[in-house]
Known about the structure:
Blueprint: H1 3-17, H2 20-26, H3 33-51, H4 53-62, H5 64-88, H6 94-101, H7 104-114, H8 121-141, H9 147-171, H10 176-198, H11 210-235, H12 240-247, H13 250-260, H14 273-290, H15 293-304
Amino acid sequence: MNHLQANLCLLCVTFCWSTEVIIFACIPNTVSPFATTSITFLAGGILLLIAFARRIIAGLKKDTKKLLLRCVFLSAINGAYNTMFQFGLKDFDVSTGAFTLSLTVVALPVIMLAQRSKVDNQTWFSSALVLVGIIVPLTGMLTKSQIPGLTIIVIGCVLRAFYIIKLNQYAREHDPIVFSTLICLSGGVMSFLCWMVVQPGTFLCISWSPTVIASLAIYSYFVVALAITLNLIAQRRATPADCAIIYSLEIVFSVLWGALLPASLIDPVSLTPRLLIGIVFVVLGNLVVIFDFKQLRNKRREAGT
């Protein structure tokens, strides 16, 4: 898998993840975020376990202790920021929520710099374009009542940035199928323990309507099992900064969902000038990363010589 293929794979992952805002809107507020994370991660992990049982057993035998410790570590971070996002998104509509979740783009280069990792000029330029794309719409949509939710999401974005960096490091050392399965299962178990504390009745506390069942099933397969596995495969080649920037395309997809889907399914999104300007800057920032213009220039120079 080359650089472009890895980035296109990340684009597919982002498309799957963009449905989170829609799915969360279909799940009643009475369903605990711990419940959503627990059920979907366990279901996704079991699906992968059934499909790749032999491969997973072989992977565990190869490097059991390190693999399990890393999976538990990443699952704890993943569960923490996902739960924060679910709590924080309750204060936002589809479009505003999508923009706030992409603040990971701002946090990641800063964390990399703090860890003394090299951040090239292309990454800073791309991150700056995406940041402008986030700020322009938020200045016209954010209200004082949404500040607590925004604070929770910002903390979640910092955790997500750290998660992406560590996941990128570990993905190069382990089988992506084995790694994603164990992350799902361990994340599901930890979320279930938190769910038991918050709602001792667990499954009995959920009103199992067809909408809730369908939402959890879709989330389990597309957002958890499929997207996490594809993400790990792509991260073996992509850089953490590339991942965070491409993930910001969730903004574009989420806004499109809000503009195209019926109001009975999701709160409609009005395509205001600020929103369209923000989308343009996010897309420009991603084009810089996806097509790696620096590499293309080098190839042209080599061809010219």
